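The passage that follows is intended for readers who have already worked through the single-chain material. We present the inputs for a multi-component assembly, then the predicted structure in tokenized form, and finally a short commentary. You are encouraged to pause after the input and sketch how you expect the pieces to fit together before reading on.
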Amino acid sequence: MNRRYALISILIVFLTLILSYAVAEEKIIKMSTTTSTENSGLLNALLPEFTKDTGIRVKVFAKGTGAAIRDGMDGNVDIILVHDKVREDKFMSEGFGAYRLAVMHNDFIILGPKSDPAGIKGLNVTEAFKKIADSKCLFVSRGDDSGTHAKEQELWGLAGISLDKKKTEVIKEGKTANLEYIYPAVLGERYISIGQGMGKTLTFSEEKQAYTLSDRGTYLEYQYGRDQGIDLDILCEGDDNLSNPYGVIPVNPKKYPDVKFEEADKLAKWLVSERGQKLIADYKIEGRQAFFPDAIR
Amino acid sequence: MDFFPDSFKSALLLLWSLDQDLLIIISLSLKVSFFSTLISGLAGIPLGLLISLNEFRGKRLVITVLNTLLSLPTVVIGLFVYSFISRRGLLGSLGLLYTPKAMILGQIILILPIITSLTITALSRIDGRYRKTALTLGANPYQTAFVIVREARFGIIASIIMAFGRVIAEVGISMMLGGNARGFTRTMTTAMALEFDKGEFTLSVALGIVLLLISFGVNIILNYFQGKAGD
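Having made your guess, compare it with the prediction:
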């Protein structure tokens, strides 16, 4: 008798689990995004409102833009919110995305120690990068194929610092392929590539009192959103070359029929709607606007 | 699903081409793991001996605490050490954070309990008559300890093997205290985590295969000693 009761109760537990899972599953979509939108706290302000409006919950996976795009290409998520125009366009042209909408932008800033040993304060970004290269100071790089990392490589190029390529051969789909690691070799050991998210890069740079490139949102959150700010100052900002646009792309249902396109579509449209754009504009970190809406100004 | 064959071929290709980055990563992994295991062994084996051979109040409690420390999460160790050695910490002026030394420090905390606890276990299996015989034959305490350790060699080397395996495969401490800086503190495990984050799964698994191959080599060497000890 006891055994039968045990069996029945186990069965009930299982059924409830499966049922609740099925019920919950209906209205959850998965989004891969960059660490900057998550670390800056923006998504925590936006997504609960979206859930309130539509009843759709969003599971967020925050990683580098490279990995977020990869998630989209593998059909692991329903929608991506990233910031690397070049790779986004590639993603679209290869048919992985349904469409791309420009959501918002913020800007990059160059951070460094208060004493500014390389003397870059107030310079434009190309001169600043040149000065850092010529100095004896450390520079910390994301090194994780993120949008910020891509931007940093672009900026070294603009500053006329030669970039070197280190190739690693791997086999992909039976063929040899090259993975490239691009870095400014002239900096030598002063260039520290740590392969981690924005937040970790900030704490690493602070620890080493090094220069680094950051998005403004994450910096504001780390500087003012915590008990103890980070011991780095904004030394360069406001240059046209430092603009940082974010795009949202629902994954193409023609490529992956399993993706929840309908809900993902709602999220994308909601982000560029008047309500979504207003929430983005109103999101402030310690009284400072962190993101600027691009769809409705 | 060409994923696994691809990764395996990539691993061989990486080894075959003696990829410069890979060599740096491997040598750092081995160096850090070697020193943390060595230091922990030098401290842990005598410590185990001390606890095992002496009768004192609270001995069982000490052993229970040691066994509890076996499940200490690497993240907790990482945080604990981090708070001491970061610029704002007590030892901040030493500039230890994000250096191989910091990783060794954290890893010692991780495996010292393993070696101590397993040494105690190995010693407890040794017949008490060895000790009594040594003492009756006029051995001093050091000579007695030596006799007992020699008898327990097999178990003690097993604890070293286990500790080494733990640190070479460990990622939490290496990431938090080493910081995964390319060419300075990037180990095989943090490199794997990074390649996974970047979405380069093939390279990530290839690195995993390389790690296993190297671990295999190290274990062959240790096994040789263990085999000798078991004779």
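Commentary: The mean pLDDT of chain B is 90. The longest helix of chain B spans residues 20-53. How closely did your sketch match?
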